[in-house]
């Protein structure tokens, strides 16, 4: 049986209470692309407390991937379902799904087609759907060791502010990204990601995100990670903030 990768997230805390992240860093969520066949990665988390406050938190996230024998075709599905309750009432709910088809055109260059759905019913009934396509290029230089991409996507977003009607925005956007890793030592690595998505009809309507993460390998099985992200949107939907900071720490293991 092929190895299964399981990622166990110990702590994931937002620095500020903020809107749904409009750019999801798919590069950091990709699975091993060097082995043909099926692969599964999944994490089920359950926590809670009883006493002065009754609270329950449940989340399921992960993905599945299929790669052809010649490694030239890849299909990837990523998903997240999360529900947080306190005193019997749900106060946070999140759903996410991302489907991506990748075809290797030549060595180092791939064409991708993708679709995505995000929703947070209790965050002003926020919803986001998109479809798009992009080129993905392997980059190996003195300054960059990773992947770059450029493409086009169509996006639909909506929110329902308090005491107001639904607000919708549909846009065609360009999508540019750069992902690179830098070794810090024999057992530690720094990964940096940039995303920029300007609207085609108005280039002043730009959203962007910067992500930096450090992974330290403790031994053959365990590794420790720390990630920090900052995102900015020049023209967010009504009731949504311009900026968002997040960080996460986790312990990863494989067998």
UniProtKB/TrEMBL annotation:
Residues 1-22 form the signal peptide. This is DUF481 domain-containing protein. It comes from the Bacteria. InterPro entries: DUF481. It holds the Pfam family DUF481. Keywords: Signal.
